[in-house]
Amino acid sequence: MQFNELGLSSKVLQAVEASGYTTPTPIQAQSIPHALAGRDILGIAQTGTGKTAAFTLPMLCRLEQGRARARMPRTLILEPTRELAAQVEEAFVKYGTNHKLNVALLIGGVSFGDQEAKIMRGADVLIATPGRLLDFFERGKLLLNGIEILVIDEADRMLDMGFIPDIEKICKLVPFTRQTLFFSATMPPEITRLTEAFLHNPVRVEVARAASTATGITQGLVATHGHAAKRDTLRKLIRGQENLKNAIIFCNRKRDVALLHKSLAKHGFSVGALHGDMDQLARMASLEAFKTGDVDLIVCSDVAARGLDIPDVSHVFNFDVPTHSEDYVHRIGRTGRAGRSGVALTLVTHEDTKYVDQIEKLIARKIDWIGPALNELGADETPHRARPHREGQDSERRGERGGRTARAGRGEGRPPRSAPETPAPARKPRGARYGEAQPASADATAAEAPRAVRHERRPRAEHDANSPRDGRRDRKPRHDDHDDAPVIGMGDHVPSFLLRPVRVKPAAETLED
Ligand code: AMP
Question: Which residue among 120, 200, 418, 421 sits deepest, i.e. has the most Cβ atoms within 10 Å of its Cβ?
C-alpha cells in the first residue's frame, strides 16, 4: 500500500513525500480512507505507530474546503499534556506546509493573551489540553459549535490524569454531527464507556498491544540498594555503557526527578529534567536541549515524558521501577524507535520485586539481571560497570540524530515554584562526553547524602493546567501527580471561601431560621 492509494489530496501527498515517508504505517493505511469518508474512528494504538499522521493527514484534506471564523475553531484536538499538544502542532507545521492554516495551541503555562489573539483570528485547528480549553470556553472566549472534527488522543492517559469528566463535557459542547477520531493505547472499561457514548458507529482499528515491547530493545535489571547507593549505582551504570549516546532516566516522583537531576549535575553529567511542576518555558527548554544534544541525559517523570517522540534515544534507565506495569512498556518504548536498537535498564531494590513480577507478567517474559541478582547483592555492594549481555547485541547500532526541532516556549510561563526545584539543564561543554565533563566535585558526595536535601512543603494540588480542574477525578491519579511530602490540613493553600469577610446575622433573623 502506498500513500497515493489512500485518497489524500495532492497538497497533502506532496507534504508527506517531502517528509520522506514512502509507505503508510498500519494505523495510517487502515484509518485514513475511513477518516476521509467521514467515519468516526476508534484507533487502538500507541505513540510510535504513526497515529499523529493518521489523524492529521485526513484533517488537512477536510480543511482545504471552507474557512475558520473568529472564535469558532473548525477542528479540535485534545491532548493530555502540553508536550504532546506541542508535538501535534509540529505535525501540522510539517504536513500542512502547503496549506495556509491557522493552528492555535491552548495549553497551560502560556499567557492567555497570545492564545486568545490566535483564536480571535479564526483557528482552523485548535490543539488543547482539556482544562485550558474549558477555561477559555467558560470565559466566553471560544465557541465550540463550529467544530467539524474532534480528535481525542491518548484517551487512557486522560483517564489516568482525571480528565474524563472534562472530556465528557467537551463532547457535549461540540456539535452532534461532528466527526470523532478517538485514540487510546489501551481500552479500560471507562474508555469503552466513553466511546460508546460519544462515537457514532466507529471503524475500529487496532495496531499494537500496549503490553508489547519493541523487539529491538535490550532490557536488563540491575540490583541495587536504595537511597544514595542507588544514585551511585546509576552513575556507574551510565559510565559503564559503551554505546550510550543519550538517555532518558525515569523516576516515579517529581521530587526525585529534581533531586536526581541535581545529583547528576554535581557529578559532572550533562543533564536536564522534565516534570509536571516545572513551568512551561523550563519544560520546553529542557526538552529542546535534550533533542538537540545540548544535554545527553534527561531525568523525567512519567506524566511529562509519556508519548514524547524523540527519535534517537539510545538508552532508557528506570531509576525507579514503575509501580504501574504499563508505564514500563511506555518508558522503554522511548528507545528503540523507528527500527533502531536501544537499551533499557531498570534499577531494582528489595522493595521493588513485586512490581518487577507484575512487569514480567505483563510483557510475558523474564528480564535478565545485569551483574548480580538482588539475592546475590552484598550488604553495601554497588554494582555496575556492566552492560547488558545479549546475543547479537555486542555492537549497538547507532542511528543518525533526528533532525526534529521543538519550538521554543511560547508566551509567558508562570513564575517558577519553590519545590521541587525547577532545574536548569546542566549543559555539556562542547565536545565533552557526558560522564567526563567535570570530575565529581568535592561537595558532590555531601550533596548526595539524603539529609543534605531539603524539601520545602508545597501545596498538594499540582495547580498545573494539565491537572483536572476543580479537583474532579474519576480515578485515583498516578504517583506522578503527587509529591509524597505529607500535607497537613489544607497545606499551604487557603481556600478563597476562608478569606471572605464573615457576615454575622442579627440574632432575630437567626432565630427565625
Ligand atoms: P507517532 O506515533 O505519531 O508519534 O509517530 C511516530 C514517528 O513515526 C514520528 O516520528 C513520525 O514522524 C514517524 N512517522 C509517521 N508516519 C510515518 C510513516 N508513514 N513512515 C515513517 N515514519 C513515519
Answer: 421
